[in-house]
Amino acid sequence: MSVSEQPGADTAAGPRAEIAAGYAFDGPALDLGALLWDGACHPDAQIRIPLPMLNRHGLVAGATGTGKTKTLQLIAEQLSAHGVPVFLADIKGDVSGISAPGADGEKVRERAAQVGQEWTPTGFPCEFYALGDSGGEGASENAKGGTGIPVRATVTSFGPVLLSKVLQLNQTQEQSLGLIFHYADSKGLELVDLKDLRAVVAFLVSDTGKAELKGIGGLSTVTAGVILRAITAFEQQGAGSFFGEPEFDTGEFLRTAPDGRGIVSVLELPAVQDKPQLFSTFLMWLLADLYGDLPEVGDLDKPKLVFFFDEAHLLFNGASKAFLESVTQTVRLIRSKGVGVFFVTQTPKDVPGDVLAQLGNRVQHALRAFTPDDAKALKATVRTFPNSAYDLEEVLTGLGTGEAVITVLSEKGAPTPVAATRLRAPESLMGPVPAPDLAAAVRGSLLYGRYAEAVDRESAYEKLTAEQQAAEAEALRAAEEKERASEEKEAARAPRAGSRPKEEPSLAQQVVGSGLFKSLARSVGTQLGREISRSLFGTARRRR
Predict the structure, then answer these.
(1) Which 8-state DSSP code applies to residue 240?
(2) What mean pLDDT value characterizes the chain?
(3) Nearest C-alpha neighbor of 87 from the set 59, 118, 129
(4) How would DSSP label each residue in 19-85?
(5) Contact 76, 51 (CB under 8 A)
(6) Cβ distance 45 to 20 under 8 Å?
(7) CB–CB of 227/167 below 8 Å?
(8) What is the DSSP letter of 389?
């Protein structure tokens, strides 16, 4: 039974009028829906959220099937219409429909009439992205077909701090990884992908490479082995193709369309459930990169960008303490850069308390209380809301699909009264667009030609490999010359009768034993390169 059908509701007009007055804003605002009170839906009492308050972050929560994704779509549409760019992490693959006009029907018309909505089918400007090579010409056969414009980062740009956190290294190992990055930075060895990092780690624990770090603490073979195993496990999560070039410029997410509407950037992540570490990596780098690039702006008339992270429990499940601290700090600080973050998940308890405390806007869909744990979570959720004229335990278990309990920050920054709300219907397609249409949109994007083709230019791996090959070639040449000289000397001598010539070392033995081979890649250590500057988060500043 939905809240609008509950018998025995308070019929007094006072609370209803007070709630409605709490959402009567003077400035621009997003229309979420109509107030539910006294057993009825009241289209004259519109529940709204002020546009300037969208950078105060938010939470959209509720049980499976209660309409969270449609709420996300509804808010994203209106942000776009107000000229605010939007980023959506589409884990289930059902948000791509925001690019196409919605399908008219009896249910849509009925909902629009109930909430006082003038519903018009409308598609919104979109760009579709994918992690790594999905959709690029160099992608695997399974990835080809254009699920999205590839998003890549270089290992150098990603930095040792974030990489240590997602690799779950301890403090000693994190410090060692920092030394590795410092060495690569100072010698001009760019770490473009994970094979570059492997090559540098392997060099620095070799006989000749150990001397390079000796003056600043060195790198033990045990620690190097742990780091290399962690990289291997990380690659098995699908992170290999995420690191590379061309590196994605996160400023692409801040664009508007020629008609002034904000572009909705949809990151297609249908397989992220079995690759949570990959998604976590991307989130941390994306937020840190934006934070490092954007200037401080304070409170604006409208946000520069709003993020929506669907299925946020995948982000936090199994996350390390360091990871959670990084997300909490970034959410707290990025508001002053004009960026809002909305987490979309099943219950508020999926979001750590320190993060939840930063979220000023709440849209809570129905919760279920089938088990003692469910009942405990329900009570905990109710306690997070301001005092209310509703019996929230009863209301939250009685909400229908497309209904929610809402409280937001007013234009003055104070929490609004709690309002049970019947939400508006999205004007775009409520479901995925056909795969051929998605592929056509990806390949038709102006950004596709910029990012589709992976580039494997000379970097640390190639430089170290070239040094190794040159040293091996020189050692082989010297060994061959020595062998020829020995043969000529032997031929000039007549062997004594019955004597046995002394056996010369084999060619392989001579190569391995040569001084040139022992000094393999020593020249790399003497090359002077450009020191790469890093931000507070340890990420490298993008080269312009």
Answers:
(1) G
(2) 83
(3) 129
(4) HHHTT--SS-EEEEEEEEETTEEEEEEEEEEEGGGGGG-EEEE-STTSSHHHHHHHHHHHHHHTT--
(5) no
(6) yes
(7) yes
(8) S
Contact predicate 479/510, CB 8 Å: yes
- In this structure, the chain runs to a length of 544
Tokens of 400: 């229908």
- For the segment 444-455, the average pLDDT, to the nearest whole number, is 92
Model confidence pLDDT, tens digit, residues 111-170: 999 999 999 999 999 999 998 875 434 443 333 434 899 999 999 998 888 888 778 888
Task: State how far the Cα of 266 lies from the Cα of 258, in Å rounded to an integer.
Answer: 19
Report the first-to-last Cα separation within the chain, whole angstroms.
Answer: 58
Give me the percent of the chain exceeding a pLDDT of 70: 82
Strand partners, 308: 88, 342
Joined together, the tokens standing for residue 55 give 């950078």
Q: Name the band, by pLDDT with cuts 50, 70 and 90, for residue 2.
A: very low
Which one-letter amino acid corresponds to residue 288? Answer: A
Rounded to the nearest angstrom, the gap between the alpha carbon of residue 225 and the centroid of all alpha carbons in its chain is: 28
**Residues with Cβ within 8 Å of residue 6, at least 6 apart in sequence:** 39, 394, 395, 398
Q: Which helix (H) or strand (E) holds 61?
A: strand 58-61
pLDDT at 538 over 90: no
SS3 401: coil
Distance of CA 69 to the CA centre of its chain: 19
Q: Which residue has the higher pLDDT, 381 or 8?
A: 381
